[in-house]
């Protein structure tokens, strides 16, 4: 595996953060998971990882956070060329319509998950968005196939889009 592609979870409630990380634990051997409880902490961790040559493939972010809110963090990520391609998911029960519209329009929000979520939904969305990220960013998907959508990857190989199984 050439470089690490991280999953970020940003949530200020420890029990909710633990539940999200537990639900996506099946991805962690291939996609390391980083956690933060504020947007500022997430930004510092991202900078450190990006400077080391890693990528942020997916962020699962709460809206209501101490300090800067989740939508503001996602909008800032969209403005940064290093995190523009990161798949962005808002997991919240408190974002109003205006903030949700802003996240869709200004942060290229990929998905909105209302709390409480179902584990199957979260796992399915995580798998789909990480598969999209790997295929869209020219990564060799074979290195990630054990946890991604293997049917989509096989289709891409059959279509000959520069992906090989060797």
From TrEMBL:
<protein>
    <recommendedName>
        <fullName>Response regulatory domain-containing protein</fullName>
    </recommendedName>
</protein>
<feature type="domain" description="Response regulatory">
    <location>
        <begin position="6"/>
        <end position="130"/>
    </location>
</feature>
<dbReference type="Pfam" id="PF00072">
    <property type="entry name" value="Response_reg"/>
</dbReference>
<dbReference type="InterPro" id="IPR050595">
    <property type="entry name" value="Bact_response_regulator"/>
</dbReference>
<dbReference type="InterPro" id="IPR011006">
    <property type="entry name" value="CheY-like_superfamily"/>
</dbReference>
<feature type="modified residue" description="4-aspartylphosphate">
    <location>
        <position position="62"/>
    </location>
</feature>
<dbReference type="InterPro" id="IPR001789">
    <property type="entry name" value="Sig_transdc_resp-reg_receiver"/>
</dbReference>
<dbReference type="GO" id="GO:0000160">
    <property type="term" value="P:phosphorelay signal transduction system"/>
</dbReference>
<keyword id="KW-0597">Phosphoprotein</keyword>
């Amino acid at each position: 595996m050439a470089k690490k592609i991280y999953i970020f979870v940003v949530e200020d409630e420890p029990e909710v953060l633990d539940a999200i990380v537990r639900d996506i634990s099946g991805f962690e051997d291939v996609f390391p998971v980083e956690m933060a409880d504020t947007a500022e902490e997430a930004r510092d961790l991202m900078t450190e990882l990006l400077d080391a040559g890693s990528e942020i493939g997916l962020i699962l972010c709460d809206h209501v956070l101490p300090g800067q809110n989740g939508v503001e963090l996602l909008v800032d990520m969209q403005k940064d060329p290093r995190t523009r391609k990161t798949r962005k998911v808002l997991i919240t029960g408190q974002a109003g319509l205006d903030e949700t519209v802003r996240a869709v329009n200004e942060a290229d929000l990929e998905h909105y998950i209302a709390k409480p979520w179902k584990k199957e939904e979260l796992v399915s969305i995580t798998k789909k968005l990480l598969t999209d990220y790997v295929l869209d960013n020219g990564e060799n998907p074979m290195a990630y196939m054990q946890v991604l959508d293997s049917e989509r990857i096989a289709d891409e190989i059959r279509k000959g889009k520069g992906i090989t199984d060797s």
